[in-house]
Amino acid sequence: MLTETTGRTPQDLAAELTGIKAVDDWPSVWSGPPQSGSAEFDAWCGRYGWEPLTFDRQLRVRTPSGGKWTFYDRAGGMWSPLANLVHYTWQLKAETAAENSAVFDTAAATWPEFLGAAVAVLGTPTWTGSWDSVDFPDPPHPSYWAGRDQRMLNREPYRFAYWAPEAGVPGLPFITLTQTVTFPTWTADMAGGSAVSLEIRPPADTKAHQ
Q1: Which residues contact 83 (CB under 8 A, 6 or more apart)?
Q2: What sign does the CA torsion over 86, 19, 165, 57 have?
Q3: Nearest to residue 166, comparing CAs of 123, 118, 115?
């Protein structure tokens, strides 16, 4: 049978994005957390109600709305500065390869629900479409999403939407909503799966990406 592993809903995604919109000092977020265990670290997390969960290499937190986020830094395990924040809002796994067609059907039905929840909070995306869209945009920085050659090879992102930051406010993030379909889903002998993830990245012109 198909199993969804996050227990999250489109309404939960909307709550997470509402929390993201409440962040009022993005430059201090991108600079990364202070050393764990310090009063400064507790204050850094506490500003937005982020509850630290793990400290192994990357910081993981739980938000007030119950979502789990991973804060990835540039160097990998050095804490700061941050490169991106990632939240998995939906993950589906098949038990057998015979269910792979159902993975595609469920993914197709699920994407509009999560995209609609994001639009309700963020407004109309700068762009949205699928991996084979002829007008699929180039990323503003190579790390933001796959370029054309890789996308056509891997069909990833499978479905995609992004919101570019408004000009004039320092540090406002790029926000991407991505649906992926794992390679085994296209096979007849391996069980596949799909996921929807939310990714928050600093503006392409920040020093974090120079």
Answers
A1: 72, 73, 74, 143, 201, 202, 208, 209
A2: negative
A3: 123
Within 10 A of 7 (CB to CB), how many other CB atoms are there? 9
C-beta separation of 188 from 12 below 8 A: no
How do residues 135-153 score in pLDDT, each as one tens digit? 999 998 888 999 999 999 9
Q: What is the largest CA-CA distance in the chain?
A: 53
Secondary structure class of 178 (helix, strand, coil): strand
Helices (H) then strands (E): counts for the chain? 5, 9
Handedness of CA 9, 29, 71, 154 (dihedral sign): positive
Phi, psi dihedrals of residue 167, rounded to the nearest 5°: -75, 150
The percentage of residues in the chain with a pLDDT greater than 90, rounded to a whole number, is: 81
Which structure tokens are listed for 24? Answer: 């009022």
Render the burial of 171-183: b for 16+ CB within 10 Å, e for the rest. Answer: bbbbbbbbbbbbe
Residue 168: partners with Cβ closer than 8 Å, 6 or more residues away: none
Distance CA 59, CA 38 (A): 14
CB atoms within 10 A of CB 68: 17
Q: Where are the alpha helices (DSSP H) in the chain?
A: 10-21, 26-30, 39-46, 100-122, 148-154
